[in-house]
Amino acid sequence: MKKILSAMLIALFLVSFASCGGNNNETTTSSPDNSSTSTTDTSADTTAITDPTTETVTESTTETTTETTTETTTETTTESTTESTTKATTTTKKATTTTKKETTTKKPEQTAPTSVKDIVELYNSATQRAQSAKPGYSKTTNTVLSNLQMGALARISVVRDAVAEFLGEGKNSNTVSKGKFDGKSLKVSTLSAADVTSATCTLSKDKKYYDIKIVVKNETNPLKGKSALGKFSDDYKDNNEIRTGLVDAGASVGDITLNTTSVVITARINAENKNFVSLNHSIKMHAILKNVKYTIAKVDTATADLSVTADYSNFVY
Predict the structure, then answer these.
(1) Which residues pair with 293 in a beta bridge?
(2) Nearest to 127 by CA among 184, 187, 180, 178
(3) Contact (Cβ atoms closer than 8 angstroms) between residue 285 and residue 236
(4) With contact defined as beta carbons under 8 Å apart, do 250 and 294 qualify?
(5) Is residue 216 within 8 Å of 192, Cβ to Cβ?
(6) Does some domain include residue 107?
(7) How far is Cα 60 from Cα 64, in angstroms, rounded to an integer?
(8) pLDDT band for position 297 (cuts 50, 70, 90)
(9) CA 273, CA 125: separation in Å to the nearest integer?
(10) pTM of the model as a whole
(11) Do residues 216 and 197 lie in contact, with contact meaning Cβ atoms separated by under 8 Å?
(12) Does any domain span residue 230?
């Protein structure tokens, strides 16, 4: 029975196979039928349409998705940047106000020096200041010879005039131009406290000027540049000059003694810059000449008093 069934199944299989094979051959070899062709074409078209539609939809979806994503990203980035910029811009800076405090330095009040040393240094510094600044000024020097006692020689006018000249009698005025200071008509002082008897200094009422007075020690035979008088003045004749002058005039002289009796310096000095406003030197001395001879006339002792004043004014610094 099983064998019969198996044989039947095989037979059916073969019939079915043969049937299928016949249809295929027929389609391929027979003339095309309009219905069959139309049906076949339609199927083919349908298949063709279906595939592109699927692709189109896919592409469209892809493009839309891409565009949306791009726009969203751009907007998000822009908004984020804008917000960040706005926050940075709205930061408020607090202005700092600095108040500058002005300091006013008050000048120390002027006071006059009181010690002899300080007053002498004040005078010396004024002469040094004149040397460096070279101011212009006027000067008048006047030497007066009085009480000339020389016996018979006093009656000889030539001798009298010669002695007076050699002692420096006479008046002389001159003006020194600014910048022409030579240190001779106004000597740079090298006085020290040891050269001075007394010294005073007062401040003017308006506190602009120092008024000083220095009394120099009296001495015998003051030599220029070496004695107290010679440290600040050249406005007198010393022993060597008197002797040389007498000899040049044809006279001879034994001893010469010059004794200063009063030497005073008075000056007004600007309290701020130490410039001279005015200056005066007053020198008084007694002269003694021994064994004076002139041709046939002779005198054992000749004496005379000398007064020398030197006034400085019109200072221009």
Answers:
(1) 252, 298
(2) 187
(3) yes
(4) yes
(5) no
(6) no
(7) 6
(8) confident
(9) 10
(10) 0.64
(11) yes
(12) yes
Q: CA 269, 273, 274, 280: dihedral to nearest 10 degrees? A: -40
Range of the domain at 130: 116-316
Dump pLDDT digits (tens) for 25-78: 444 434 444 433 333 343 334 333 334 333 333 333 333 333 333 343 334 333
Q: Which tens digit of pLDDT belongs to each residue from 219-273?
A: 999 998 889 999 999 999 898 888 888 888 788 889 999 999 999 999 999 999 9
H-assigned helices in the chain: 2-29, 34-89, 116-133, 157-166, 239-248
Query: How far is residue 181 CA from its own chain's centroid?
Result: 30
What whole-number distance in Å separates Cα of residue 262 and Cα of residue 260?
6
Q: Which of 94, 121, 75, 140 shows the shortest CA–CA distance to 269? A: 121
Instruction: Evaluate whether residue 245 is within a structural domain.
Output: yes
Indicate the number of domains in the chain. Answer: 1
Would you say how long the chain is, in residues?
Answer: 317
Bridge partners (DSSP) listed for residue 128:
none
Indicate the Cα dihedral angle 268, 269, 272, 273, nearest 10°: 150
What lies within 8 Å, CB to CB, of 238 at 6+ separation is 221, 222, 223, 224, 230, 258
How many angstroms separate the CA atoms of 132 and 127, rounded? Answer: 9
Q: Phi and psi (nearest 5°) for 17?
A: -65, -40
Tokens describing residue 95: 């202005």
Among candidates 284, 300, 272, 180, which has minimal Cα distance to 229?
A: 284
| Structural contact between residues 315 and 135, judged by C-beta atoms closer than 8 angstroms | yes
* Domain contains 171: yes
